């Protein structure tokens, strides 16, 4: 074999070892269940889903009502019930609270938190967030007479979806779900990250959840962590890095 042919052969072998089929052969989990955060819906995972499917994983994106912790956990548990196990359970932002409670299921192999809250047992979102200075972005949250929160268009572009293109920011604003304030004060009864291998994406430019909070949660959960130079919606600004960590959690 000539030297050039040898180099080509080596390159093909290297490519095959990292191809989707090769990755799939290494996976122990079968399904990824994706849980969106507050002010969002399942479309927030649109860039990550094809990457996970290409790696050989089945994917379910939950559409949670954002009415309460109980209702979001119920919706997520139904998705877990119907999915092929083992499962990687992934949550963004408020979705981290949801997977912390819903992840206490024998079908769940591991947890992935993407710029997310990870409360301990007996803690609510408010309990965790109150330990850190208020973010400037909170001033753009608007509560209606029924107790539902939304973020102003300016808040979406400046804080929530910072780092995305104007067209992407507009889409995030249009599809945002109203989030009831009662969900923020309901404590979780069990912290699944205490029992399951956990992985965390820290968004270092996040203006919704303080990056220091995210780093402190990594320590508490003894989680495997990556940092990305991203605003709050890291799965939209850095989908490859987020997908790679989810795939790692599936191995």
UniProtKB/TrEMBL annotation:
The keyword Hydrolase applies. Residues 32-244 form the AB hydrolase-1 domain. It holds the Pfam family Abhydrolase_6. InterPro entries: AB_hydrolase_1, AB_hydrolase_fold, Sec-Metab_Biosynth_Hydrolase. SUPFAM superfamilies: alpha/beta-Hydrolases. This is Alpha/beta hydrolase. Gene3D superfamilies: alpha/beta hydrolase. Residues 1-24 form the signal peptide. One of its GO terms (molecular function) is hydrolase activity. Keywords: Hydrolase, Signal. Coiled coil: none annotated. It comes from Rhizobium sophorae.
């Amino acid at each position: 074999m000539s030297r050039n042919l040898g180099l080509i052969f080596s390159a093909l072998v290297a490519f095959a070892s990292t191809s989707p089929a090769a990755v799939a052969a290494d996976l122990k989990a079968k399904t990824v269940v994706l849980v969106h955060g507050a002010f969002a819906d399942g479309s927030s995972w649109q860039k990550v889903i094809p990457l996970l499917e290409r790696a050989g994983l089945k994917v379910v994106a939950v559409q949670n009502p954002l009415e309460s912790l109980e209702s979001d956990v119920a919706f997520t548990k139904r998705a877990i019930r119907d999915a092929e196990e083992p499962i990687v359970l992934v949550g963004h932002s408020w979705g981290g609270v949801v997977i912390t409670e819903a992840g206490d299921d024998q079908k769940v192999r591991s947890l992935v938190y993407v710029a997310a809250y990870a409360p301990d047992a007996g803690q609510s979102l408010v309990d965790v967030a109150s330990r850190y200075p208020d973010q400037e972005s909170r001033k753009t949250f608007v509560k209606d007479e029924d107790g539902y929160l939304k973020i102003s268009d300016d808040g979406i572009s400046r804080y929530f979806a910072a780092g995305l293109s104007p067209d992407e920011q507009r889409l995030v604003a249009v599809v945002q779900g109203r989030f009831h304030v009662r969900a923020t004060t309901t404590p979780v009864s069990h912290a699944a990250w205490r029992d399951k291998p956990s992985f965390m994406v820290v968004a270092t430019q996040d203006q919704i959840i303080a990056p220091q909070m995210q780093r402190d949660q990594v320590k508490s959960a003894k989680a495997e962590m990556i940092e990305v130079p991203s605003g709050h919606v890291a799965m939209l600004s850095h989908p490859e890095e987020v997908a790679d960590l989810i795939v790692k959690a599936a191995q």
